[in-house]
Model the fold of this input.
Amino acid sequence: MKRRTAIRSILTLPAAMALPVPLPAQVAGPAPPPSNEMPDTPTVAADTHTDTVVKAFNADQFAALNKLSSILVPSLPDTPGGLDAKAGEFLDFLISQSPPDRVMLYNEGLDRLNQEARKRTGKPFGEITAEQARPILAPLHEPWTYEPSTDPFTCFLRAAKEDILKATRNSRQYISVVSRRNRRAGGMGIYWFPIND
Amino acid sequence: MNTGYDVLIIGSGASGGSAAHVLAKKGIRCLMLDAGPAVNFERDRGFKRVYDLPYRGFGKPGRFPNVTQANEFNGNVWADQKKNPYTYDRSAPYNWVRVRLVGGKTLFWGRWSLRLSNYEFRCKDHDGYGTNWPIRYEDLAPYYDRAERIFRVTGQKAGLPQLPDGVFIEDNSPDSGSIRRFDAAAARRGIATTKVRRASGELASSVNLLLPGAIETGNLQIISDAVVREITTDPKTGLANGAYFIDRRSQHDYHVEARVVVLGASCLESTRILLNSGLANSSGVLGHYLFDQFYVKDVVVAVVPQARGGNPPRGLMGGGGCVPRFRNLKTREKNFIRGYLLDFSSGSTPDAKYFPAYGEALEKQLADVEGAGFGIWAIGEVLPRYENHVRIDKKVSDAWGIPALHVQAKYTDNEFEMAKDSMRVSEELCRDAGFEVVASHWQMVPPGESIHELGTCRMGDDPKTSVLNKYNQSHDIKNLFVVDGSAFVSGGCQNPTLTISALAMRAAEYLAEQMRTREI
Done:
């Protein structure tokens, strides 16, 4: 038996039908008259034509997150970076819906970036250069360990590195450029819809 | 109205599907209940781009705190943890990973199909710990043959007593250069390697390999969305006579009757049903001896130096294999009993987290190792212990009002020492093969995460210390059978699905004969 035939043959019955005598199959009526052709209205994605409303972070924190995105995943001549991918905006949305410990990790981590930047340069993190940020981001140059660091700031930087990279690589902006270069359909996966919910 | 069924089968995955496959073909009229809906592969899934998902592939935060396998693409296939709660002590987290769909976890399993050996079936004879199974490898071997044919297992014979050969679709594919180097490094230490033994085909599930044959006979009907609350018994005889269930969507209650009840609802769900029914526990061990197999994911991540530069030489990378258990076979380790296997693969790109860099420097490093990675996972035996158990948590119920499980499971020194050893050996093998070790660790995932939960309704010859006899039949109620992973006495480090299927077919053969001779 071919697979599709086999799968189609797995006909399950709702309980109300299976236990009593099965109902006779309904006879199909005449086909409805052809309907007018339905229009296919073109739309655009919100994030390509509008600005998102920042929810999880204050202005200083959000500026620090955007600067961090631009440093950790910079725009390269042929590859979009974190800013191009609006990684900051996306992470603001994601963190706004995250459990409290994740929200705290980000809030405290971004505040610490600003504190460290002000201490060293007199400016918030969002206004310093990548070179000035280098000593602040020193924990990212330490070797990987499985055990999370006991230092919350290091934990934040590692989480932010992973999140910004993923938010960038899974973005429309990044995938459209890389797909054109590789001639492959990047970022595609099999999605499972809610099943008979 | 609802009489006339010979056998009620609860669950439609590897165990329930295997039992139905045997029973229906013998002319026995079966009704199968499954707690979830049936999948329509054309309607229920489709291609999407990750950026079109609401969370860019991150998934909704907090939706699946205990299912690390869940991502935004497959999030809708896992059992909803709010509707299907369970509890555990905060100090001992347990990841109970469930699929509530017709076909169960066989819709998504990893497909590794390995036989147990007498090192497991006669484990106490070998090292003095625990309990022997009431059966030997030889009792199950014919059913392994059948299961391998059904699941179209590919592999290559290796002649190893700790991992018996099977009826394989012969895998004669050439190994890549990196795999040959790893195999040679293992051989120099007297450690055997094998090709992966895995079910093949586009889909290798109960829904395309087990159920269609049973349905074709006309002897199997399946009711989907049927959440079983309890098994019922005849007050006069004490025998099982059916089950109460609730329709998942309408919440309507139903009762179905049958001459025999076969439980194959998955390891912990079957035990939960029995505990909620107050049945089959004269021994007092129902729910106890919970174990699984621990994983150390990415115990070693290495790079093949000759593959650096982003363009590995042809034939160097790709493929994978298995290091079957090699510890405590002819010698004895000082720090632990039993053993583990290693699952190795070549050709991945190591994750960015392993590189202490960011920005353009990180991009250059990642480009340099693209496709040059060599990764290993360790899968280890967890000892069955009485204190690791499940019980009903009367304070918590699921969305259908059915009391939930409390799970208590912890790993102990034997597992910790084994995990450490797996890291040491993996590092040594990689270095001997000439690979650069990028990262290593020995931290096991929480109990349950391997989705290889076993025990809690174990087999045995003695009704005082076991729930089932050697045919998966309740010692207490002769027309009640439990055919899933809960029946395991010990688990080894081999993925359990093939053994679950073989045991279920063996139990079903026995049941059919008992019914034919009117013993049941």
